[in-house]
From TrEMBL:
Residues 394-611 form the Histidine kinase domain. It comes from the Bacteria. GO terms for cellular component: membrane. Residues 188-241 form the HAMP domain. Its EC number is 2.7.13.3. It comes from Pandoraea terrae. This is Sensory/regulatory protein RpfC.
Length: 843
């Protein structure tokens, strides 16, 4: 039988016994209480009756007293607990009835209890009359000899005892049941704790050392027992885990040693101080090039494997092993069976308790040595490339500074109306040569930026058909000069505009087309542009030139590399294709090539470009600026190079600006505060105080927070421009200074209206001569377009003089061209011709 069952039965028996005891004791107590309370009631009622009877006797006599007794009897019967009450009056000594509810007055009432009452005269007693028991209280009435008694049936008197006993018994039973329930619950909880404890002990006995008794904050004997079991279990678990960890570590160590010995990575051999190799793993045999048969035959000795120059290192290692029990790993070489040497890393130790036998570990260092050599070579090459890139960038920076003077003065002198045609042509040669040199420098600088990972694209909207026509016109002139045919095939479904970096895309196409023309002696060159929906454009350049051997296809894209048949060709830096491929890759494509020597080459690339909806406008026309409207303005030029200051002064003083010069940033600050210029041209790199610091200090002065500053730098990297703008500059101008760009920035910052030598006009505007501008035939316009792209003002003037012979209606157009050519306005001429070409193409 389970503990809980026994406990419940015991609780039930206790409830029954306790209920019986309560009822027994309650019966005695209630009976005594009822007797005493009934006695008090009877005494009180008897005393009241005695007083009433005495009053009647004294006032009205015996008859009235008898009637009063009958009335009192009636009143008693109406009271609770006195339904069987009998008021009896007996006259002594002859025991005659004065009043009795049943007997008649005068009757003799002979009964033993009457004699007892007469004898005692006052008190309480129990008596039996017939088969009924009564409880009576009695007294005498003086001065007459009457005994008056009041008795009640004991059954009625004790009737309330049963009610009391039932109530007491019920309450006692309920309380005992509640007590039993509480005892049962407590017992259940107690048994649960004992069962939990036993369960935990069983789990621990079965090996579950992590078993714990849930903590119950009851510090009784069972609680202390549970805490003790938990503490004991924790100690056993800790000791067991420590033992298991030690065993696991030992197993892992043994496994590592076993894997090490059996591995094909680290060579392991067992040796003795005499130089013998008793046993080894396959990795060691592979390192030294011997077989296991050689090992078993005793042909392998570790001393014999060691070259003479490493024997001293072996001796030092043996001494270290004898002294400390192990040697520090050291590098050496082994002589392989085939006579070659292999670099290794060796470390060894004696067996425990031995001074002659030990184990050695050998790691083949061949791959590590090769990797280190390759890494050093790569680092050397990268350092050389970085040095080369830095050198190229520095050289391009130094070259741009004198070019600023060359191209700047070419632009200044070009505006002089006193120059004759020969002088204008000479300036054109200087201009074109300087721009060509600038293009080469830009290639070098672009390559340096690409190498440094600092080149960023600048996507803009490109009017694709017009963009391609301009490129085709440029290349067609080069092709015609070599007697080559040139075609530009544009697919009819080409979009009107795309989003891309116009400068880089133009540079790539011109590089590919210029190379095609350069290496083609006869035949033709073609540019084919097709559209691959939804937004991919394919550019393909094909020629019938010398071709390229397949082995050199990748070489031609390497920087500064030229294949054999191109090395003696004039022009180029060897950077064009390398830069072009990098540009195309930055745009998301790649340049591919197919070529056959003696047949020709095809270069192509594809770009995914956003399509620009609607018309995309080209560059606005640029005309000859001669001055500006409004009051004269003072400009401050800050540059440490006198030539650079002179270029800017000569450029801008001709337009009516008053020019002030400063030789460095500190001088610029002083002169700026002295003259309060309207605008400052600030070189970024100067001694004593550079332009960045000077600009920052200017912005701290209240009067110069809004004065425009144009930063000028021979470095055109995006980071330099960002630094200048962050220092407080309003605009950035790279060297050599582009006059048109500079004037555009000045006009924007000072809100100027320029005055022009040649008035700005739409295609419908009239020339200086009377009559509308009528464009000549298409063939003549194409020739003029090519000449404008070349910048040949002499050829344009000659062609313009020829136009009136084709028709008098072309004279206004011819006069306009002549005026622009005389002023050497190449950009204005190009824009004028392109406007008419676009208008004609649209119609």
């Amino acid at each position: 039988m389970k503990i809980m069952t026994r406990f419940n039965l015991m609780s039930f028996g206790i409830v029954l016994i306790m209920t019986a005891l309560v009822l027994g004791v309650g019966t005695l107590i209630v009976t005594d209480i009822l007797y005493k309370s009934q006695e008090q009631v009877l005494r009180l009622e008897l005393a009241n009756a005695r007083q009433a009877l005495l009053r009647e006797l004294n006032s009205a006599g015996v008859r009235a007293a008898t009637e009063m007794a009958a009335e009192l009897q009636s009143q008693l019967l109406q009271k609770e607990g006195l339904k069987s009450a009998q008021l009896t009056i007996v006259e002594i000594p002859d025991n005659r009835v004065v009043y009795h509810p049943v007997l008649h007055p005068g009757d003799r009432f002979n009964h033993p209890f009457i004699d007892e009452m007469v004898r005692r005269q006052e008190g309480v007693m129990e008596y039996t009359q017939g088969d009924m028991s009564y409880y009576a209280t009695f007294t005498t009435i003086d001065p007459i000899d009457w005994v008056i008694s009041l008795s009640v049936d004991k059954t009625e008197m004790l009737a309330r005892r049963s009610d009391f006993l039932r109530a007491i018994g019920g309450i006692a039973f309920i309380l005992l049941c509640l007590n039993a329930i509480l005892v049962s619950l407590y017992g259940r909880r107690l048994v649960t704790r004992i069962r939990t404890t036993l369960d935990c002990v069983n789990r621990i006995e079965q090996g579950e050392l992590s078993a714990r008794i849930p903590v119950v904050p009851i510090l009784d004997e069972i609680g202390h027992l549970q805490e003790g079991i938990n503490a004991m279990s924790a100690r056993v678990q800790q000791r067991t885990e420590e033992q298991q960890s030690a065993e696991q570590a030992l197993r892992e160590r043994e496994a590592r040693i076993r894997r090490l010995v059996e591995s094909n990575i680290i060579g392991v051999f067992f040796w003795d101080t005499d130089g013998n190799v008793a046993e080894s793993n396959d990795a060691f045999l592979r390192i030294v090039g011997y077989s296991r048969e050689d090992l078993l035959s005793g042909k392998i000795g570790w001393k014999d494997l060691t070259p003479p120059e490493y024997r001293a290192a072996d001796a030092r290692a043996i001494e270290e092993v004898l002294r400390t029990g192990g040697s520090t790993p050291y590098e050496k070489e082994y002589i392989r069976k085939d006579g070659t040497r292999v670099p290794v890393l060796v470390g060894g130790t004696f067996f425990e308790g031995s001074q002659r036998h030990g184990v050695a570990f050998v790691l083949d260092q061949t791959e590590r040595k090769q990797a280190a050599a390759e890494r050093n070579a790569r680092l050397t090459a990268e350092a050389a490339n970085r040095a080369k890139s830095e050198f190229l960038a520095n050289m391009s920076h130094e070259l741009r500074t004198p070019l600023n003077g060359i191209l700047g003065y070419a632009q200044v002198l070009r505006r002089d109306k006193a120059l004759d045609e020969r002088q204008i042509e000479g300036l054109g040669v200087i201009q074109r040569s300087g721009e060509h040199l600038l293009a080469l420098i830009n290639d070098i600088l672009d390559f340096a930026r690409i190498e440094a990972g600092k080149l960023e694209l600048n996507p803009t909207g490109i009017p694709l058909p017009r963009f391609l026509r301009v490129i085709a016109d440029i290349v067609s002139i080069e092709a015609v000069q070599k007697g080559l045919g040139f075609t530009c095939d544009m697919a009819p479904d080409l979009p009107n505009g795309i989003q891309a970096d116009e400068r880089r895309l133009r540079q790539v196409l011109l590089n590919l087309l210029s190379n095609a023309v350069k290496f083609t002696e006869r035949g033709s060159v073609s540019l084919r542009v097709s559209f691959l929906p939804p937004a991919r454009v394919r550019f393909e350049v094909r020629d019938t030139g010398v071709g390229i051997d397949k082995a050199h296809w990748d070489l031609i894209f390497e920087p500064f590399e030229q294949v054999e048949h191109t090395r003696h060709r004039p022009g180029g830096t060897g950077l064009g294709l390398a830069i072009s491929r990098r540009f195309v890759r930055m745009m998301g494509g790649d340049i591919h090539v197919e070529s056959q020597p003696g047949v020709g080459s095809t270069f192509w690339f594809e770009l995914d470009v956003p399509i620009v909806a609607g018309e995309v406008s080209g560059a606005p026309p640029v005309w000859a600026v001669t001055g500006y409207k409004g009051a004269r303005k003072t400009l401050l030029v800050v540059d440490d190079v006198a030539e650079n200051r002179a270029v800017a002064v000569d450029m801008l003083s001709q337009l009516g600006f008053e020019m002030i010069e400063a030789v460095n940033g500190r001088d610029g600050l002083e002169k700026a505060q002295a003259v309060r210029p309207a605008l400052i041209l600030m070189d970024s790199v100067m001694p004593e105080m550079d332009g960045l610091e000077a600009t920052r200090r200017l912005r701290q002065l209240p009067d110069f927070k809004a004065v425009p500053v144009i930063a000028v730098s021979a470095s055109t990297s995006g980071s330099d421009e960002e630094k200048c703008l962050a220092a407080g500059a309003n605009a950035f101008q790279p060297k050599p200074i582009d006059m048109d760009r500079l004037l555009s920035q000045i006009a924007m910052l000072l809100k100027l209206d320029w005055t022009y030598d040649v008035p700005m006009a739409e295609p419908s505007a009239r020339a200086q001569t009377n009559g509308p501008l009528v464009a000549p035939p298409q063939q003549e316009m194409e020739i003029l377009h090519r000449l404008a792209l070349l910048g040949s003002m002499r050829d344009i003037a000659q062609r313009a003089a020829h136009l009136p012979a084709l028709g008098e209606q072309y004279r206004p157009f011819a006069d306009q061209l002549s005026a622009l050519a005389k002023a050497y306005q190449s950009k204005a001429i190009l824009n004028l011709i392109e406007q008419f070409l676009e208008r004609r193409a649209a119609s």
